[in-house]
Amino acid sequence: MVKSWSSWKRFPNAQSGDHIEAPIGPGVYEVRHTDTGSLIAFGHSANVANAICELKLDSGAGSWARLFRRDTATPRVGELEYRTCAAASRAEAKTTARRLMGLRQNFWRRRTAADWASGNPS
């Protein structure tokens, strides 16, 4: 059975030796921009802590990869926060991620339809 979401946590500062607080097992994760709330990453994994650590986020150090990216407005790690949801198995994590993504898509469809109906499309 999938547990509830953890609270939102700021990404740790790797230079000061902080660590990611996430399950070392299957689950779902979500990363968002702290100020805007925009979704940066969402997924499921057999090892949530490892998946979050492997996200290709901009540490602000001016890496070579940044020179070749089209999008230079990538948020810095310090501007992001994450939350996790543990699962009993990888299959359960995958099912939960699909269900949550479906709920999110339905929400945005309804919101967009309501905005158009009110004559106030965003």
Can you describe this structure?
The structure is a single chain. With 122 residues, the protein is of the alpha+beta class. The chain is built from 3 helices and 4 strands, in the order βββααβα. It has helices at 48-53, 64-68, 90-117, and strands spanning 9-10, 27-33, 39-45, 80-86. A 4-stranded antiparallel beta sheet has the order 1-4-2-3.
Question: Could you give a short account of the major beta sheet?
Answer: 4 strands, antiparallel
* Unreliable parts: 62-67
What is the CATH architecture term? 3-Layer(aba) Sandwich
In sequence order, what are the helices and strands, one letter per element?
A: EEEHHEH
Mean pLDDT: 81
| General form | flat
How many domain modules? 1
Observed structural traits:
19% strand, GIY-YIG endonuclease, 122 residues, alpha+beta
SSE blueprint and pairings:
Layout: E1 9-10, E2 27-33, E3 39-45, H1 48-53, H2 64-68, E4 80-86, H3 90-117
Antiparallel strand pairs: 1-4, 2-3, 2-4
Summarize the structure.
Helices cover 32% and strands 19% of the residues.
